[in-house]
Amino acid sequence: MTENGAGLSRFARDLPPVDRFVSLGEGSTPLVSLERLAARLGLRRLAAKMETLNPTGSYKDRVAAMSVSLALQRGNPGWITTSSGNAGLAMAAYGTRAGLPGQIFIGGSAPREKRLALAPYDVEVVPVDGIDRESTSTALSELLQEVSLAAARHDLFVGVTLHAFNPDGMRGVDTLGFELAEQDPEATHVYLPAGGGGLLTATARGLRIRSVPSRVIASQPVGCAPIVRFLAGEIPVPEIRRGESSILSLQLPNPPDGLLAAKAVVESGGWGTVVTDDAVGQAQRLLATTEGVLVEPAAAVALAALISDAASGRLTAADNPVVVLSGAGWKDLSAFANDADADRPIEVGQLPGRVDAWARTIRRPHER
């Protein structure tokens, strides 16, 4: 049973068949208008799909819900996955919900917040050396191959969030496109971060199934942008030897779903946009200070791309773009560590002076 209308089951007729959907209330995430940010960017409208509000804080819950439901349907005794943090947490939560044991191979440099979030779950978490900012396409391919072979040996469900390894589980993300079709069928552009390419591919498929003609925009950091570079004709295939970006969850130099994602972009009439890591950090802070929404760096890549396209005139005031905010900000707070460390305690007697000084900086609503 799914409570309050959330969960994947209401889209069951468009998803792989299962007798029971394992649910924690995923999906049905709101589409929130970003009016102040739109005005700042010179746009008439701008909205954000809040995947941050899924049970474990990212769109990966849609994949996990579908994957674990399929694992139960198929009688798998357990599951296995690779992760930079989000997929592992989602699979841990949904696997626990279903009573299925699991094993997670996580990049050794995954953000501390993502590793800590896994600690309460009774799953085996195995850090893997060499899967980090300096990872090569060969190292990542080898990891995925070994996980796939191990799953075959032990009849485990491969909970990797990529079509190349888990095509039926990735159908859970189609529901993101289905929901956008309900919430804003007139969206002209949908901006998505692209790492492995799975999120973009599935969202575009969901929009296409619902006959929504939105242009899909692949957003990648300049240090690891094989899909965008392929779309631009710079490289013959969406693959580079090594990525160099601080956005770890998008650090896939050889995206397994890269060709699928590029095809989805082209079919939608969209394009690819690259942004610097600095621009990503600025977009992350701007969203928080302007609209009160804190996202992780990977999600901010899509917003940074939108901001870049608005500044260049690729987006105009006549457009109605949507940005998919794929993961919550509490998942990676490293960018704000120095800010927090700069805070120093005061004596209670100093409080009046601090309030007086702060109050002098406030402008009344009519002055803003």
Please write out the topology.
Blueprint: E1 31-33, H1 35-41, E2 47-50, H2 60-74, E3 79-83, H3 86-98, E4 102-107, H4 112-118, E5 124-128, H5 137-154, E6 157-158, H6 174-183, E7 189-193, H7 198-209, E8 215-221, H8 226-231, H9 258-268, E9 271-275, H10 277-291, H11 297-312, E10 321-325, H12 337-341, H13 351-359
Parallel strand pairs: 2-10, 3-4, 3-6, 4-5, 7-8, 7-10, 8-9
Antiparallel strand pairs: 1-2
What does this structure look like?
This protein is an alpha/beta fold. It has 2 domains: 9-58 and 170-336, Rossmann fold; 60-158, Rossmann fold, CATH 3.40.50. The protein is built from 13 helices and 10 strands. It has helices spanning 35-41, 60-74, 86-98, 112-118, 137-154, 174-183, 198-209, 226-231, 258-268, 277-291, 297-312, 337-341, 351-359, and strands at residues 31-33, 47-50, 79-83, 102-107, 124-128, 157-158, 189-193, 215-221, 271-275, 321-325. A 6-stranded mixed beta sheet has the order 1-2-10-7-8-9, sandwiched between helices. Strands 5-4-3-6 form a 4-stranded parallel beta sheet, sandwiched between helices. Strand 3 (79-83), helix 3 (86-98) and strand 4 (102-107) form a beta-alpha-beta unit. Helix 2 packs parallel to helix 3 and helix 7 (198-209) runs parallel beside helix 9 (258-268). It is globular and about 65 Å long. The N and C termini lie far apart (48 Å). The mean pLDDT is 92.
